[in-house]
Amino acid sequence: MAGIAPLKSYIVPAVTKHTATVIFVHGLGDTGLGWKPVAEMLNDELPQVKWVLPNAPPMPVTANGERKLAGLTVLSGWLPLRHDFKSMISEHAKSLPIFWGHGSADPLVRHELAVKSVDFLRESIGINTSPTAEQLVGLSFTSYAGVQHSVNDRELSDLKTWLKKVLPSVD
Questions:
Q1: Total structural domains in the chain?
Q2: Which pLDDT value is given to residue 61?
Q3: Phi and psi for 20 in degrees, rounded to 5?
Q4: CB–CB of 21/168 below 8 Å?
Q5: pTM for this entry
Q6: Residues 85 and 158 in one domain
């Protein structure tokens, strides 16, 4: 059986001792280079992080192969095939920190699809969608008023704050 060919990626290295790697999976057909400014901006306060920015093919892919995820970030996304997903997900998902940001004016992935996805994860999978500021486990969902299928400064700031909380520090 042939293996899956690795995606070509753009790498933003850690600028201090490397303690964490973030694989930034984005929209199909998009390039890692297009997200380089975001990784570099986040590296200012997360210097221990190596950023892997794959060039996405124009077809479905898996984000992590057979490796266990340590956390998940969703920007302007939704969970298609929810009922099929329920049979594929493991108990490990309930132990993940998840950041989910979505613009209220997104014309490509409607906001209501994100809300329904989060509701499904809470009601059908049992993922905590109300983690406290001290909790690392659970799904933190934030809507960004007026934002379309993109990110704004507030969402990037919220993402940076969340990453600083859940990733290992330099020490």
A1: 2
A2: 45
A3: -155, 150
A4: no
A5: 0.71
A6: yes
